[in-house]
Amino acid sequence: MTKIKLLPAEGQDDYTDALKAGTYLRTVNPAGFLVRLAKDAAPASTQTLGQGLSHGEKDYLDGGVTVEAEEIDDALTAAFIGGLKLGAYSAGQRRGDFKEHPLLHGEIQWGGDAGAALILADVQTRIMALVDAPANKKRAQDLAAWAVESGKTYGYDVRVLDKAACLEEGLHALLAVNRGSEDPAVLIVMEYRGGGGEGKDTIAIIGKGVTFDTGGVSIKGSQNLHLMKSDMGGAAATFGALEAAARLKLPVHLVGIVPATDNSVDALSIKPSDVIESHAGKTIEIIDTDAEGRLIMADGLSYAVKHFSPTTLMDVATLTGSAVRTFGYVCAAMLSKNEALVQQFRAAGDACGERVWPLPPWDDFAKGLESDVADVKNFSGNPLHGATDAFKFLENFTHGHARYIHFDIAGVALKQGPYAKDRQATGFGVRLFVEWLSRERS
Ligand code: BES
Ligand code: ZN
Ligand code: ZN
Fold this sequence. Notes:
By secondary structure, the protein is α/β, with parallel strands linked by helices. Helices cover about 35% and strands about 20% of the residues. The protein has 12 helices and 19 strands. The chain has helices at about 45-55, 75-85, 115-130, 140-155, 165-170, 170-180, 235-245, 295-310, 320-325, 340-350, 385-395, 430-440; strands at about 1-5, 25, 30-35, 65-70, 105-110, 155-160, 185-195, 200-205, 210-215, 255-265, 275, 285, 310-315, 330-335, 355-360, 375, 405-410, 415, 425. Strands 6, 7, 8, 9, 10, 13, 14, 15 and 17 form a 9-stranded mixed β-sheet that branches. A 5-stranded mixed β-sheet has the order 2-3-1-4-5, with helices on one face. α2 runs parallel beside α3 (about 115-130) and α7 (about 235-245) crosses α12 (about 430-440). The longest helix has 18 residues, at about 115-130. One zinc ion binds near residues 213, 292 and 293.
């Protein structure tokens, strides 16, 4: 049993001189750690402190940890404990020398209630594992199987539309992207009916499930191409939101829609100049096959509106390099014409540490997507304001929804951190959605 004792930043104790705020010390007798919280500690930074200890000291941790906290806010202790759990994650499960971290399935005891923090950390860890998984281990069917299994375990409905059902349903844009693939596309439909939430307020999240993005015929360069395994980060965030809502028993009616396929090169692949159909009935001229995310998302959005009439329509996608160039790895881009939603999500993002920042949703940006041969084209042909253009494209397929909000997480789905050599999954989106769903909304 490892003992971890949390001390307040300004505490006068036996270790006042030895232990600086925001750091920890390993002790031998009893075997454990002394941790001093940072000055003005917030939950997000306290979670990081726990994560750092857990990751860095795994050789000195047992499968059982007891946490003692003196004069520390319960929310901070819970966040620290969530961090301990997060620090147990590693992407190395397919390495021959993989050794499971003792806290991945170990127990963390504390006098207070860290239940919610532990559940969130566990969901986030499962989502990170999915995003970090190699593309050949998460084909469209594998994503569907993950969702089915999660729904069965945690009590929410999951239906999978196979390729034939997608055709029947008219998901022509999803099927167009799937033309170059060996793996049939699927549409994964998840529904969680939380007690008290049903009927009042249906919230839909659509997540981009491109299991690998080669760019298609408009092929990408090979530098960092391996990271395009994370092009299902939006799907993963959607899975996480559903699983977390169910496990935390949030009183909401939540729908998750994930169109899933890879974007590959083949004789059958769509080509620039092709005109394709879509679920919403609009025709699309393909200018660039690398703008595939917006094609499958268009069908996901239209399907959600037609089948669920959600009160709030949200989507999350690793959609554009433009979002990366605009905000780097600091925050996600957020676009909506609904100012109230934008404000709510800014506040939710600040609170949970997954920050989002708005870009202008104005109709001025729609002009560049007008096509001579179809209702809309999938790329304006110019390199300016690409994240906004993607949003203007998607708006065409929301059937004029009044509470639609879009999150482009291309920059934040992966990050270079202290816990891995290459960029690693963040699980971005899970906490943002859970935070927003847990708050008072109108
Ligand atoms: N999956 C990419 C976006 C992306 C880029 C995600 C970098 C993560 C990191 C998306 O499908 C894409 O290729 N977008 C193109 C669109 C362009 C051709 C209109 C882009 O942003 O360059
Ligand atoms: Zn692409
Ligand atoms: Zn993509």
